[in-house]
UniProtKB/TrEMBL annotation:
Annotated spans, Disordered: 134-159
Source organism superkingdom: Eukaryota
Name of the protein in its database record: NmrA-like domain-containing protein
InterPro entries assigned: Ergot_Alk_Oxidoreductase (IPR051604), NAD(P)-bd_dom_sf (IPR036291)
Organism whose genome encodes this protein: Diversispora epigaea
Length: 353
């Protein structure tokens, strides 16, 4: 183990989630005077012409930008990781710089580099929770000894995002002792996703939702996810190493309850608009240019439902929906409510014409 170095490396820092984490992480010493200043390395795609050091500084992150190519040149990451004690293995398909087919290779590059650099603590945020019942057959033959390794090595282009995130989790557990890993699960339905539907809500006073009124959602605010991650990154590895957390909002919500929270927050009546996937896809495609990003969001929202898995509905629950107190345990405070989100973003959902 290396001597105490509190510096942090954040992979996949091209997107909004990575940017918010960097900014919040570097603001923590000014908010909590007992915390030391740390160096944050922001790993961005070597092919990303839209991100530069100066642009990150304009976002007030002041992070040290590292242009990386973990898929084709993972060895180059080892030098930067040798300067840190913690790696936030952030995989963000919404950044627009990571294709679905490259997800496993992206993660493998960072994991292998972290192992070589003797990184002490790896934090892996994932929007997917383990399924309670295996409704579908495994991706590979069920030889338990070789199943995980075969699945990882077989970068199947047809794998869903859920499959790939679960394989990344397995890859981590195969590479590092559990005491060096922290898994942070969060619901795929984030309050901020509803901003993508602002025009539809303005024009129709309806929230577009998946066509299944019996679904139950776990929602949470992106700021709560960021807050939990930053607290873990600033703590000694012994406090959170080996833990699996699940961050949720304060309530489980049905589709009708989501509409009620929107109505209370916006001060006008909002109703659910149940739409098939193809219509949701069209609405999202008007505001998101990348097809894979749209597909990722649809998978997140669909698979978060209580009775939905792999494209169809089942009478048995695919996964357990629940409210946890993990956020309060990590940060000392509760999560933000969906109603408060709408109150704080009322201007975005109001017609300015």
């Amino acid at each position: 183990m290396k001597s105490r170095i509190d510096n942090v490396f954040i992979s996949g820092a091209d997107g909004e989630l990575g940017s918010q984490i960097m900014k919040s992480l570097l603001e923590m010493p000014s908010l909590h005077r007992h915390l030391p200043n740390i160096t944050v390395y922001a790993g961005v795609s070597v092919h990303n012409e839209n991100i530069s050091s100066s642009q990150l500084e304009e976002r007030d992150t002041m992070a040290m930008v590292v242009n990386v190519d973990p898929i084709n040149n993972p060895e180059a990451i080892v030098h930067s990781l040798s300067n840190v004690s913690k790696l936030l293995l952030l995989i963000d398909p919404l950044s627009g710089k990571l294709t679905q087919n490259d997800t496993l290779s992206f993660a493998r590059g960072y994991i292998n580099a972290a192992k070589e650099a003797n990184v002490e603590h790896i934090i892996f945020p994932t929007p997917f929770t383990k399924l309670d019942t295996p409704f579908t057959p495994p991706l590979t033959p069920t030889d338990e000894k070789d199943e995980t390794e075969s699945s990882i090595n077989n970068n199947n282009n047809n794998n869903s995002y859920r499959d790939q995130f679960e394989l990344v989790e397995s890859m981590l557990k195969e590479t590092f002792p559990s005491s060096q890993i922290t898994i942070l699960r969060y619901p795929g339905v984030l309050n901020q996703h509803l901003l993508l539907f602002s025009r539809h809500i303005i024009e129709h006073s309806k929230i577009p939702l998946i066509d299944n009124p019996s679904m139950i959602f776990e929602c949470c605010d992106i700021s709560d996810v960021v807050r939990a991650i930053c607290n873990i990154l600033y703590c000694p590895v012994q406090r959170h190493g080996g833990k699996i957390y699940k961050i949720t909002g304060p309530n489980l919500l049905t589709t009708d309850e989501i509409a009620v929270k929107a109505s209370l927050g916006l001060g006008r009546t909002i109703t659910p608009d149940f739409l098939p996937n193809n219509q949701l896809y069209e609405i999202l495609s008007e505001v998101i240019p990348g097809k894979e990003e749209v597909a990722y969001l649809l998978e997140l929202w669909g698979l978060q439902g209580k009775n939905y898995i792999n494209g169809s509905y089942n009478s048995g629950g695919a996964r357990r929906v629940q409210v946890t107190r993990d956020l309060e345990m990590i940060t000392g405070g509760p999560g933000k409510s969906l109603r408060d989100f709408f109150v704080n973003n009322r201007a975005t959902f109001c017609d300015k014409i």
